[in-house]
Amino acid sequence: MRLEGKRAIVTGAGSGIGKAIASRFAQEGARVVIADIDLEAAEIVAKELGDNTKPYRVDVSKAEEVHKLINHVVDEWGGLDIMVNNAGVGVAATTTETSEEDFDRIIAINLKGTFLGMKYAIPAIRNSGGGSIINIASVAGLVGVPERAAYCASKGGIVALTRAAAIDHISEGVRINCICPGTVLTPWIERITANYPDPEAARAAMEARQPHGRFVMPEEIAAMAAFLASDEAGSIVGAAMVVDGGMTAK
Fold first, then answer.
1. Does the keyword Oxidoreductase apply (predicted)?
2. How far apart are CA 157 and CA 75, in angstroms?
């Protein structure tokens, strides 16, 4: 119960990593807003997790929607302690293969969405007496990953933005860090591999590139998020916490 009494928002919490983080936070005693662009998915997760969770529809690329989300939580619960900027998308493509439309969409959701989440959450967390922001980046923000050009750009931006914001706002009691997952077993795997001529072979190749021989599980990312959100992580500021089964150690 490390997060007992804490008030949290998790974006992209209707499935995958976000759902696992929301579940772990609820288990640790937090009240959690399950924020997702798919309201039906958010409602299903909130129903599964119980009374301490609330579903909320948000498009993280829209400033007014993110601002309303933060204000809603402050109005409902009297403040905000934890913000997890997790919502994200990606496509399988090289730089030359990536359309301008896909590039703009990935940057808008992944990078701008994280920026907006911090922009509006930082004052709310500061006014609540301090707390934690956790951005979900990726190993793709630390090393080059084949056929993920725009995704790598967006996640590298999240790592850099996390560090800059962490230095700017730690004096206000707001700790900002990011997590860099490796290849995590989520519905995103199916969406990415569906674009390949042989989806099963593409999936097997993604799993094989993990040195520990398997996909990272969403619950493993959630465990790191729960630690970063807790008071135990009080001296972790501006860090990029890698959870990748050894992928970037090679």
1. yes
2. 31
Query: Which alpha helices (H) appear in the chain, and where do they start and end?
Result: 16-27, 39-49, 63-77, 100-106, 113-127, 149-169, 187-193, 199-208, 218-229
Specify burial of residue 232 (Cβ count, 10 A radius: 0-12, 13-18, 19+): exposed
151 included as an active-site residue: yes
Q: For residue range 93-111, list pLDDT tens digits in order.
A: 999 999 999 999 999 999 9
Instruction: Identify whether the C-beta of residue 31 lies closer than 8 Å to the C-beta of residue 53.
Output: yes
Q: Place 142 in a pLDDT band, splitting at 50, 70 and 90.
A: very high
Contact 99, 150 (CB under 8 A): no
Reference 152, options 227, 38, 248, 230; nearest CA is: 248
Contact status, residue 136 vs residue 17, Cβ threshold 8 Å: yes
* CATH number listed for the domain at residues 7-181+221-242: 3.40.50.720
Return the domain boundaries, the chain.
7-181+221-242
Mind listing the pLDDT tens digit for each residue in 204-231?
877 777 888 888 899 999 999 999 999 9
Q: 46 vs 4, 11, 117, CA distance in Å?
A: 18, 13, 21
Catalytic residue among 56, 120, 151, 196: 151
CB-CB contact of 36 with 9 (8 Å)? no
